[in-house]
Amino acid sequence: MTKTKPLIGSIQVPGDKSISHRAIMLGSIAEGTTTIYNFLQGLDCIATINAFRQMGIDINNDADNNKVVIKGKGLYGLKKPDKVIDVGNSGTTIRLLSGILCGQGFDSVLTGDNSIRSRPMNRIITPLSMMNGKIKSVSGDGLPPLEISSRGDKPLKAISYTSPVASAQVKSSILLAGLYADGQTRVIEPNLSRNHTEITLNYFGASINQEGNTTTITPNPRLKGQVVNVPGDISSAAYFIAAGLIVPGSKLLIKDVGINPTRDGIIEICRKMKGNISLENIREWNGEQVADIYVEHSNLQGVDIGGSIIPRLIDELPIIAIMACFADGTTTIRDAEELMVKETNRIDVMVNNLQALGANIIGTDDGMIIRGGKPLFGGKVESKNDHRIAMSFAIANLMTEGDVDIVGQDCVNISYPSFFDDLNSLIS
Ligand code: S3P
C-alpha cells in the first residue's frame, strides 16, 4: 500500500522550454509579426523575452493565455541594450543569445545567477572566436559575465566546426552566429543533439540542412514572422510519465507533447524498462512532431543507458534515476558527464539526495549505478535551486515511506510554474 492514490485522468503540460526560447529569438530577428501560442511562462523563457525587449523589440506577453506577439525587426534590427543583460538561470538564453550578439554592430554584456556564473562558456567562446566574434569571459576563467564587442561592419567568418560535445546550446549558438557570416557555417556533432533551432530556423525561412550529425546554415536569409504553436514539453511530461509508471493503479494520458526524435529518449527507455507507454494521435505542429502519451502502472526493470541516446534524454536523467529506484534490478547510466555542468552537478545532487532517502545508488565519473527495488524513506533533500531536481523528488515523494522535504522547491518556476498545482490536481 503506497501513500498516494493512483494517478488517473489526463493532463496537459506547459509549452516546450527549448522551442519557446527559439520562437522569441527568431521572432525578434525576423521581419513582421510572430505570434506564439502555448508559450512557456517559466522564468528562463521570460529572461529571453526581457533580453530582446532591452534590445528594442516590442514583445507583448499575454501571460493568462500563454500568447506572445512579437514585432520583429529583421536580422539587423536589434539595438544596443542600455544595461547588462541578465539571463537569470537560463543556459539556453546566454549561449544562444551570444551567437546572435556576436553578429551585431554593438557591444553587450551578459550575466546571470550564481548557477549561470559557474557554467562553462569556453564551449561557445572557442567556436565564436574562430568566427571572429569578439566574445570573452570578463574574468578570463571561461565563466560569465561575458563581454561581446561589436563585429564592426564586417560579417563573421564562416567555419566548419567539429564540436567536442553533443550540445544543442553550442550547436545553436554557432548556427545563429552563422546567420551573420560570410558563407556557409557547418557544425559536426559527436552525437545529434536536439534540433529545435534547425526546425524553427527552417520554419522561419532560413536555408538550413541537416544530414546525420552535420548541420549547415546559409547566411543572411530573409526570416519572416510566423505563427508558432509550442508543443508540450516532453521534459515536463517526463515527471508524469514516471509517476504514472511507478504509482500502482495509475492510468494517465498526457496530451499534446512534443516527441521530436532528438528528444524522445525517455520513451525508448521507459519501453526498455518494460513500462506500459504508448503514443496516440501523432501529428505535426510547425515542423515538430506531437502526440498524446498514455502510461499505466508497470513493474519496471533496471536498464543500461549510455551512448548516443544520452543527448536525447539528458534533462530526464534525474527523473529516470528516481524510476530506477522503483525498478527491479540494476540501472546503469553511462556517458552522461554533461550532467556535471547543468544547473547543478546533477550526478552529485541526485546521488546525495537519493542516498539520504535510503536508495542504493553510487555516482561514477560519467553517471550513476542504481540498485532498485528497495523502499525509499522520507527525509530532507536539497534542490540546490535546480528545477529538475525539485520536480524529480516531488515524484519520488509519491512513493516514499514518509514525506520528502524538498528545500527550495519554488525553483520549479524556472521551467514549470504550475507543476505542484498540476500534480495535486491528479492526486487529490
Ligand atoms: C537545451 C539544450 C540542452 C538542455 C537544456 C536546453 C536547449 O543543453 O540540457 O536544458 O534548449 O538547447 P546542452 O546543449 O548544454 O546539452
Query: How many beta-strand segments?
Result: 22
Average pLDDT over all residues: 98
- Distance between the terminal alpha carbons, to the nearest Å? 17 Å
CATH architecture verdict of the largest domain: Alpha-beta prism
- Going by CATH, what is the homologous superfamily of the largest domain? Enolpyruvate transferase domain
Q: List the strand order in the largest sheet.
A: 1-14-16-15
In terms of structural class, how would the helical and strand content be classed? Answer: alpha/beta
Helix count? Answer: 12
Tell me about the largest β-sheet: 4 strands, mixed
Shape: globular
CATH class of the largest domain, please? Alpha Beta
Bound molecules: shikimate-3-phosphate
The percent range for strand residues is 25-35%
* Count of structural domains: 2
Uncertain parts: none
Integer-rounded radius of gyration: 21 Å
Question: What's the assembly state of these chains?
Answer: single chain
Any idea of the CATH topology of the largest domain? UDP-n-acetylglucosamine1-carboxyvinyl-transferase, Chain
Q: What is the share of helical residues?
A: 25-40%
Describe the 3D structure:
The chain is an alpha/beta fold and 428 residues long. It folds into two domains: 8-14 and 231-427, UDP-n-acetylglucosamine1-carboxyvinyl-transferase, Chain (Alpha-beta prism); 17-229, UDP-n-acetylglucosamine1-carboxyvinyl-transferase, Chain (Alpha-beta prism), CATH 3.65.10.10. Helices cover 29% and strands 26% of the residues. The chain is built from twelve helices and 22 strands. It has helices spanning 17-29, 43-54, 91-102, 122-130, 168-178, 196-203, 234-246, 265-272, 317-325, 346-356, 387-396, 419-427, and strands at 8-12, 31-37, 58-62, 67-73, 85-86, 108-111, 134-137, 146-149, 160-162, 185-188, 208-211, 214-217, 227-229, 251-258, 276-285, 288-296, 304-305, 330-333, 360-364, 367-371, 377-382, 401-407. The strands form six sheets. A four-stranded mixed β-sheet has the order 1-14-16-15. A four-stranded mixed β-sheet has the order 3-4-2-13, covered by helices on one side. Strands 5-6-8-7 form a four-stranded mixed β-sheet. Helix 2 (43-54) runs parallel beside helix 3 and helix 7 packs parallel to helix 11. The longest helix has 13 residues, at 17-29. The mean pLDDT is 98. The structure holds shikimate-3-phosphate. Residues 18, 92, 167-169, 172, 193-194, 314-315, 338 line the site of shikimate-3-phosphate.
